Amino acid sequence: MRNRNILLLLISFLFLIGNAWSVKATAATPSKPDDLTETDSNSGIIFSPRSGYFEGTIGFDKININTDQDPTHVIFFWDDTLYPSVRIYGESHNYLNEFELGDIDTITLSGKGEFTLEIYARNGYGNWSCDAMDEFDYQLVYGDCLQDIIAAPLSGYLENSSEVDKIKVDSIVDTVHAVFEWDSGMELWVEILSENDESLGEFNLDDGNVIDLTGTGIFILQLTARSGYGNWNCEVLNDEDYNSLYGNVSFNAIEINNSVYETDEKSFISNFLKDMVAYDTEKLKSYISPDYLSLNNLNINEYSINTYSPANFAIDGFNDYTSIIDCRIWGENQDWMHALEFKIVEENGKYYIYPSETSGEYIHPWHSVTNGIK
What CA–CA distance (Å, rounded) separates 121 from 85? Predict the structure, then answer.
């Protein structure tokens, strides 16, 4: 990996529909790392062609880029015999800027949408190639290799409830603190996903503006504005930096443990808790063990499932030996919080909850409950 010095070349302009875009150039000696991978539509960046050849100064190659990432980094590589330059155009082919490659090798495109890059030889001959990356992948490949946490992007703007911003976090430390700030009047929610897009919980940040991520690996933080609009910012810190900056500040923190989402049992109980949040009492019946019902001569249609009305939940641990999962549920603004244990059983290839008891007309689905832990 290599260090890069930033040139103070920043050109801002207004696109026809009012979106602010900018183009920035970055200096470095071109040296394509062995582990550099191609960017494709999975990253939200589609571009072609990725390479070409110039025999002289006649003509140019046109690179079309369509990106839903902000920013997008385009990294160029070329033969020593070639002296290339790049012209940059916006979505309506409006001219943005032009750079001579040599002093720079990376062009950073700020703003989502379509760009056109025209590369040409101002002198010489030879091959060229390029790659395009979002901020996370760019930091992963070209950033400081001593970083223990890589996270990007760390700011954004949500205009309405249909827009989604995603923060990708990759950590080699066990605890990561994501501290959020956002404009007043916006109700900001974050859903935490595992690397496999498994939901680890969804939270209203008004209930706590710090998300504590426990367990190494990759998390995806998916941000939406349930109401209002505005800017958001995030700091992603290890324990040492967090305590140094915020050690004397009292935050409501929500803890998410990545390591407990490694089996189908936890995914199963996560779905159960989502239906509890939705207060879908009829659907909750489908999670109850048929063996439990048969053993106790119960007709599920004649009973109700005892439940709470939580605003959200978190899964804290799993005992593979006892098949018991530890969870927390809480109300709006975390004004109450309970600890629940559920016992999971597998019957005929499917997972079910084995209740603790039935009393009156209610089946109690949990193995145990500790009320009022907060």
Answer: 6
Topology at the third CATH level for domain 264-370: Nuclear Transport Factor 2; Chain: A, (3.10.450)
3-state helix vs strand vs coil in the chain, percent to 5: 15, 50, 35
CB 349 within 8 A of CB 342: no
Task: Name beta bridge partners: 254.
Answer: 211
pLDDT > 90: what percent of the chain?
A: 34
- In the chain, the amino acid numbered 33 is P
The average confidence (pLDDT) of the chain is 80
- Options 1.10.10.10, 2.60.120.380, 3.40.190.10, 3.40.50.1820; CATH for 147-259 is 2.60.120.380
DSSP element (H, E) containing 357: strand 357-359
Report the SS3 class of residue 246.
helix
Angle 179-184-187 (CA atoms, 0-180°, nearest 5)?
75
- Residue-wise pLDDT for 302-324, tens only, equals 999 999 999 888 887 778 788 89
